[in-house]
Amino acid sequence: MKIPEDVAEMLEKETTIKIIGTADVDLDVNLEYLKVIQLIGDDIILIPYFTGNDRTFKNLQQNKKISIAIFESGIIGFKLNGLFTGIQKSEKHLQYFSNFFDKKKLAGAIRIRIKEIYALTMAIAGEKIA
Amino acid sequence: MAIIPDIILDTMAEPDSVKMVGTVDQDGKPNVVMISTIAVLDLETIAFADLKLGKTKENLYNNGKLTLSVSNKTGKTYQIRCSFVAFDNKSEIYDRWFNAVWQRMSMQLKGVAIAKVIKIIQD
Q1: Is B22 within 8 Å of A35 when comparing Cβ atoms?
Q2: Residue B91: CATH number of its domain
Q3: CA A29 to CA A10: how far, in whole Å?
Q4: Residue B56 sits in which domain range?
Q5: What is the per-residue pLDDT for A85?
Q6: Is position B27 within any domain?
Q7: Distance from C-alpha of A43 to C-alpha of B65, rounded to nearest angstrom
Q8: The pTM is what?
Q9: Which residue among B23, B27, B34 sits closest to A29, beta carbon to beta carbon?
Q10: How near does any CA of chain B get to the CA of A23, in Å?
Q11: Interatomic CA distance for residues A47 and A65, integer angstroms
Q12: In the predicted model, what is the mean pLDDT of residues B43-49?
């Protein structure tokens, strides 16, 4: 699957709202607001994780499934479902996120493979995009 | 049970605040959607509109677990972990929202989801 261009643009825009949903083995959901996501392949994204009690990272170690809602202006949006496939700690990837976050708090980047995308825009909400 | 603190009530009242709901299916697959209409019925009970809830509704009926998040424009986020109670379409809030949603969005309100607050998480 290739992330469509309009979705990719929204993912990489700093101004879009991005909420990351993960769940632990007890099916408790954690939602995290994120400022930046890096697209590094047709269907691969990176999200940062931090030192200390990073609940998203902790959940993904127990349950690899993730759901990401992105939207802008509260009107146009997409939901991306994917799987945690590993972490990146290379300087190259951390450099990107260190432009936005305190480098001391940044522990690494979580690599996610996007498997499916749905519309969140109200009129067509639930429609499969890719 | 827990009660919603003032800081979250204030954030919810901000016009630019973002409200999301996350649920999960029995296989652990999370589902995150935006909420357009939300209200605090009392400090332990929240209601939100069902305009086009599909997977969310299915998950709520299956395991009753949900997390609401409220973020302000700086990204400060609060999570309200809840337990689903019911979908309502007979109460006064349903009637009130039905008209308001129709006027604002030209969409028909299907129901109002009611949830009890279990835990507050401040990130």
Answers
A1: no
A2: 2.30.110.10
A3: 24
A4: 6-122
A5: 98
A6: yes
A7: 29
A8: 0.93
A9: B23
A10: 6
A11: 14
A12: 97
